[in-house]
């Protein structure tokens, strides 16, 4: 039987922060990650290298999916880490270029998500305050294959990220959803701040983007696809 629900492929899906947002926007989501996580909320999961998965399954992906989303690890992307790709044994290989090459070969609309220092086109920037969340977590999105998503207004932050910095405690409406200790957010605080209720894994919670970000993107992807169909 024909499945009317449009499908998103979520590469580097981790515990599924991005996946959940696309689901909330009405998509069926298949995740790919090198690490299996039992709590992953997608409808389907493949444990594999994400870039190899795309090259190995090009035809089927083109047939099944309407959008490919990719969140390559950002640890290799900060300015001090750049250029270390060629160092043998580097634990954080830079995956953006090979990911983009695979997605361009695929020829589907795509979204690559990453941090400010990453070498992606900054077509869209999202901040937790745009969605009334308890994290700031600025993230940038490269949109591929004619996909356009309106940039929401970057509203003034309501205050500081709470926690210790240089021996002083600052209070504020946002939690520090990175690192460990030193006033950084607890598991419960991160879940509440990001709107995630299906995992308690500290690292996965730190890495997850708030589902509100991809719900926003997904809603516009549906409009974009409807316009493409009508054209
Ligand atoms: C930044 S996290 C993604 C967070 C996710 N978008 C979310 O919202 O929850 C990056 C993920 O990439 C995975 N990863 C690292 N190298 C990979 C590779 N070569 N292929 C597939 N997944 C990989 C890691 O296991 C990690 O789960």
Mind telling me the C-alpha Rg?
Answer: 18 Å
Q: What's the CATH class label? A: Alpha Beta
Which fold does the CATH topology refer to? Rossmann fold
- Largest sheet strand order: 3-2-1-4-5-7-6
CATH architecture: 3-Layer(aba) Sandwich
How many helices? The count is: 7
Strand content: 15-25%
Structural class: alpha/beta
- Classified in CATH, the superfamily is Vaccinia Virus protein VP39
Helix residue percentage: 25-40%
Shape: globular
Spatial separation of the terminal alpha carbons = 27 Å
Explain briefly what this protein structure is.
This protein is an alpha/beta fold and about 230 residues long.
Report on the architecture of this protein:
- This protein is an alpha/beta fold and 231 residues long.
- The chain has a single domain, classed as Rossmann fold.
- It contains seven helices and nine strands; from the N terminus they run βαββααβαβββββααα.
- It has a seven-stranded mixed sheet, with helices on both faces. It has a two-stranded antiparallel sheet with strand order 8-9.
- Strand 8 and strand 9 form a beta hairpin.
- S-adenosylmethionine binds next to helix 1.
Key features?
single chain; alpha/beta; Rossmann fold; globular
Layout of secondary structure:
Elements: E1 7-11, H1 17-24, E2 28-33, E3 44-47, H2 50-56, H3 58-64, E4 67-70, H4 96-106, E5 110-114, E6 124-126, E7 139-144, E8 163-165, E9 168-170, H5 187-194, H6 202-207, H7 211-230
Parallel strand pairs: 1-2, 1-4, 2-3, 4-5
Antiparallel strand pairs: 5-7, 6-7, 8-9
The structure holds S-adenosylmethionine (SAM).
S-adenosylmethionine binds next to helix 1.
């Amino acid at each position: 039987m024909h499945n009317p629900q449009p499908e998103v492929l979520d590469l580097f899906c981790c515990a599924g922060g991005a996946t959940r947002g696309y689901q909330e926007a009405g998509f069926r989501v298949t995740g790919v990650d090198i690490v299996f996580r039992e709590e992953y909320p997608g409808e389907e999961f493949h444990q594999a290298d994400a870039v190899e998965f795309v090259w190995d399954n090009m035809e089927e992906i083109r047939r099944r999916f309407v959008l490919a989303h990719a969140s390559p690890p950002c640890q290799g992307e900060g300015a001090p880490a750049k250029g270390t790709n060629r160092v043998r044994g580097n634990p954080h290989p830079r995956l953006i270029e090979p990911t983009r090459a695979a997605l361009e070969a695929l020829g589907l609309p795509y979204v690559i998500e990453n941090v400010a220092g990453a070498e992606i086109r900054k077509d869209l920037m999202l901040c937790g305050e745009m969605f009334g969340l308890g994290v700031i977590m600025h993230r940038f999105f490269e949109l591929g294959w004619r996909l356009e998503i309106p940039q929401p207004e970057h509203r003034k932050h309501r205050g500081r990220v709470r926690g210790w910095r240089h021996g002083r405690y600052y209070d504020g409406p946002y939690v520090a959803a990175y690192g460990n200790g030193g006033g950084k957010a607890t598991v419960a605080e991160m879940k509440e701040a990001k709107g995630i209720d299906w995992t308690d894994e500290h690292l996965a919670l730190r890495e997850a983007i708030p589902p509100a970000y991809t719900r926003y993107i997904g809603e516009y992807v549906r409009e974009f696809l409807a316009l493409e169909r009508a054209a």
